């Protein structure tokens, strides 16, 4: 039994609130338990210079954490004047994960930037961010189509994408770790899959002890179950009306 | 009649939600219409080096805006590697305004940092930030007292503080400007007052035309009415139970 | 009686020396007592990118302080690699104040940058900077007209602009505060007016105690008297021959 | 058959030259084909502030690339004034990988910094860096023991660590990708294992197409074979005399 | 005959005004013709960390140029967020030159920082800065002695130091080049000597054509004559009363 | 007799290895004893903006040191976020020295960047860098001619350039100082000459005691002998086949 009463293969309460912002072309407040990430998708015509004339669009992401998202206040990266390695790493992960399901030629020369700002952190912020960002992205793509910016007639999104963290705690593989579990995990893995269940990213790290093939397999099984459930929640959220 | 149907001397709908974050010692989501600012107060023992041994505490603030708080996405200051002048100016204003009602010797050698992050901007973000930050500050001071960090027996907060924007539009002084009014204002003023109605900050700027003494007086009257109402809402919010 | 023997409503000795630099299109060494600011106006053809094709010009300002302008040496912002909040705030104030009397369409697509470098600081550096910068600006505009860069036939400068600090010390409102008075002021206000006496900026701050309407009114009266006298000194300076 | 004539499960020529630098406590020039990374281990007494008094040591890494390591010259990060996301990400990966085989309490309050500078890049720079850095680390630990800085009597290194890249190209899983293969890979994975064959890091990325469990398994098999061979080469290198 | 009517071995009008600032322990406005540099010497007790406990003092310098010191406005290094190579190079040269005549053990654990800010540039700013900075340094050392901070009883300054530029223009070696000559010089040399006539720095650069030994010798002769005259002017300035 | 057994006028063992990198248009690993510098010349079509349309090319250099090139590890400038004064100064020196023998109009609108990265430092890194960079530059110019980018028919290189350090140690002038001699030198000079023996740069610094004309003359004699020998070694290296 886990501290919060969940079964090892159970997700925390996941909530996906679309249209949380008035200005953004797509926006989602995603909650995995107490982890709360605001994902805003900004659709703009045109692409970065190195993409100009390619006929292809671009999707990228920026992840950040508010200073008091965490238990102790951390300094602002804007005040420090530089972005930390962790921030860089997660921003790149989110961008890659989303691009795995985007047909950039169907998008045309348009750019969608996903801003994922962690309002409150309780473990799994990067996986919540990917899961929420996909929904915001879908809304922004729909906005682009509705407003005549996406005109190719092809599907921009080839599939959906969702992510979850898994880890081994006291020898037991567990799904969707909150902070108190995360710090105790011997091995920690973030898994990103498509709606169809294929892998987009697998990032496993031995935090306290190297892991063997059997443990890796158990973690992957657990993760695939989790992202399947998240995929269902994403579709459910996208099926709801967004009256704005 | 204003675009949103308000009378010239009427505030937008103001909502003050305490305890919006789980980790912070004080936290408030403050809304002035569509403007939405998250204010987190972090209480820590100890003071900056230049205050050590003084017996006095320190209260400071940092203001920032999420990239997609605005209609068009703006670049992150952390990515640009430097903080803009506007951000600096507003952070300093919030800090000064709050310190005006803090007895630093009663606070003892403790520091309270107020993080005011604009989640959505529709004019008046700095005045909403000050108004919300005061409530978060009050909760953090209470937390400090409850946890035995504030022991002087004196009141740390000598009064409350609230702020509102006023401006002259087509010759008419108006209270609490949303973005569409703000850009059209000939003169724009931000006024910070104490609960007792005294001035803490008065910042008037001729945006399109210099203003005379009569206009200045009319704006001040309007502002004082507005902050009195905000003071009432702050007290109301602080009177509610915060079950955490 | 004040420490330097002045009456409460008396300015310090103000000196405005035009043409202090050989290269700049306009330049002024302005002195308010021991406060000494070098204001250089640089006239260049063309405007920033966001103004291109607008037919309008641009006027902006940068304020800075030499490391040993003050009693204790301060670090160079270039060495620290970032500009402080105070510097940002004052640069923006000077730029806004000057633009209030500039008809940018009469200026045409030209840019005038005002560099205000404090060589020695003894209180009131921002107000001295604005007062001196106006004179340097006037010389740069005249230079632009003489050299055929300003051709619209309209007046570029719609009025003059001057600034002064006022404050309440031991209950008495006083004009043009030197450093020793500034640090003791309960309330500190910087007022910028046009030559015609209208307000451009009013920035009042409760340093040690909130202020009431009567105090505010007394400070405004004092300031308006001070800027009127500064306006006279600016005109006198501009009336002198500048033999270069 | 691959462009360079290798079998799919064959490493490039790997050379590990110890003692390439005269000053460093451990140093290795490691070559995976044309990829050439200089790994320098610097042993210093003392630990970062947040580790002081813990009785534990610290091992960290910094990765960088010379401007002309690549086919086209890239700008220096020192000139740009900031470190890119890729650099950050790889530095963190190297540090984590090495720490997985370090008993920090056996190291005592000493710090070892691994500088991995890519002199020439032809794919697999991060895996070459980890493989070479382990050898440099082993030499630095031995230096620390020889000079009486490591005195606990316990083994500092609990195992060895090596890394290799694998990828799927035209449907075939391949080991140790040079640049020309890397850019064509549908899926790209970096795997770090201990000498005992357990996983330390598994980072798989769908570059052009999501991958399924069977592909993941094939890649892991291939990688484990590769790191086993690299482990053998590391031991061989460490068995040679280092006459300095 | 030179454009300004000087003989090839003649200095420009040199003016050394001591006590130009009220706050600094030593200050000089030095003018070499139209080149105008403000040198401020700040005396503080204590030394940088790496000198603590050495019993020795430290003397260092920072050189900078106001944006409109030159014919065209240059961007502020504080705004750019970094210091250029030329600024760095000259700051280091000034510091080294002054330290050549300072007995750091006689100074005791005190620091003197020389800020050399170019108010107007017309060639030879670094040599004017060194020449003026020496005089400001002498005043700061005297201040330190008068205020009991320098107590060793030994002479802190072992000699004086002065600097001048020389160059070959159309085949003729010339002393103290203004900007119009500087840009045309085939070879450009900055020479720093002690009052006793020994060399502290010799920096010769072939701007347009390599130079031979005879040319080098002629330039050195010229420079030594120039610095001897500057030494005389420094002594004269220091002999004057400084009534503050 | 010197510590390493050399005569006062003898160079260390100098090795110039061309083609050390596979990607660069010219590359040299140059060794002066234990000092080891990797010089990479990158030839690109086009010039910086301020040179566009001039018909002239541009040659520039960047110098840097690996963190563990030195006896104690130094921090990376990329991590610190700024380039130090020494790095700036040496980069500028290398660039100027090379440009002294380049006919930029013969080069056409092409740019050659010389990256000089110190892999190991034992004194004289800047002079080794210049000496090696010239050879890399010559190879890059030849590459440009072979590939049809340099078409003017004129010689791009008007001469060769080499550099050496000299210093006075215990009263004796010595050639090519390793670190142990460098720190003890009373006077330190870096001399850059053309193959024809004319001076390009002469930079003499009194490290511990000012120097007189006789000492300066002795140092120059010694340096000229050293660079003549280096010129011979450069020609020898360039005469060898570079089979790539």
Topology:
6 copies of one chain form a homohexamer.
Chain A: E1 14-18, E2 26-32, E3 35-45, E4 58-65, H1 77-80, H2 85-99, H3 104-107, E5 110-120, H4 125-146, E6 161-169, E7 172-175, H5 179-182, E8 187-194, E9 199-206, H6 213-239
Parallel strand pairs in A: 4-5
Antiparallel strand pairs in A: 1-2, 2-3, 3-5, 6-7, 6-8, 8-9
Please mark out the parts of chain A with pLDDT under 50 across 5 or more consecutive residues, or reply none: none
Total strands of chain A: the figure is: 9
Radius of gyration of chain A: 18 Å
**What kind of oligomer do you see?**
homohexamer
Reading the helices and strands of chain A in chain order gives EEEEHHHEHEEHEEH
Number of DSSP helices of chain A? 6
Helix percent band of chain A: 25-40%
Euclidean distance between termini CA atoms of chain A: 42 Å
* Arithmetic mean of pLDDT of chain A: 95
Counting helices, strands and paired strands, the structural category of chain A is alpha+beta
Largest sheet of chain A: 5 strands, mixed
What is the global morphology of chain A?
globular
Strand content of chain A: 25-35%
| Biggest interface found | A-B, 34 and 34 residues
Please state how the strands of the largest beta sheet of chain A are arranged side by side: 1-2-3-5-4
